[in-house]
From TrEMBL:
Subunit: Associates with stalled 50S ribosomal subunits. Binds to RqcH, 23S rRNA and the P-site tRNA. Does not require RqcH for association with 50S subunits.
Domain RNA-binding S4 stretches: 1-61
Entry keywords, A to Z: Protein biosynthesis, RNA-binding, rRNA-binding, tRNA-binding
Protein name as it appears in the record: RQC P-site tRNA stabilizing factor
Family: Belongs to the RqcP family.
Entry-linked InterPro entries: RqcP (IPR025490), S4_RNA-bd (IPR002942), S4_RNA-bd_sf (IPR036986)
Protein role: Key component of the ribosome quality control system (RQC), a ribosome-associated complex that mediates the extraction of incompletely synthesized nascent chains from stalled ribosomes and their subsequent degradation. RqcH recruits Ala-charged tRNA, and with RqcP directs the elongation of stalled nascent chains on 50S ribosomal subunits, leading to non-templated C-terminal alanine extensions (Ala tail). The Ala tail promotes nascent chain degradation. RqcP is associated with the translocation-like movement of the peptidyl-tRNA from the A-site into the P-site.
Any Pfam family the entry gives: S4
Lineage, broadest ranks: Bacteria, Bacillati, Bacillota, Bacilli, Lactobacillales
Stretches of the chain forming a coiled coil according to its record: none
GO biological process: rescue of stalled ribosome
Gene this chain is encoded by: rqcP
GO MF annotation terms: ribosomal large subunit binding; rRNA binding; tRNA binding
Record bears the keyword Protein biosynthesis: yes
């Protein structure tokens, strides 16, 4: 399945056009390799997605052509979510 389609169906990103734009700007990697929107996603792949101020790492668990909103989260598991904003140091 194409990366942009997986991101939309799994609801990690709400619109396919936004998923395509994010991937084509080099902000998504599959198994630590830079990915384009047309890259293929397979079960067991690790996706790293850099949003504005957070980085999300997920493991692909399932591929579906379509899902209901409540079933979308079963397509992946979150490995880690990193907040990349600068935190103030009050020491």
């Amino acid at each position: 399945m194409r990366l942009d389609k997986f991101l939309k169906i799994s609801r990690l990103i709400k619109r396919r056009s936004v998923a395509k734009e994010v991937a084509d700007k080099g902000r998504i990697s599959i198994n630590d390799k830079l990915a384009k929107s047309s890259s293929k996603v397979a079960i067991g792949d690790k996706l790293t997605i850099v949003f504005g101020n957070k980085t999300l790492e997920v493991n692909v668990l399932a591929l579906h052509e379509s899902t209901k909103k409540e079933d979308a989260a079963s397509m992946y598991e979150i490995i880690q979510e990193i907040d990349t904003r600068e935190k103030p140091n009050f020491d």
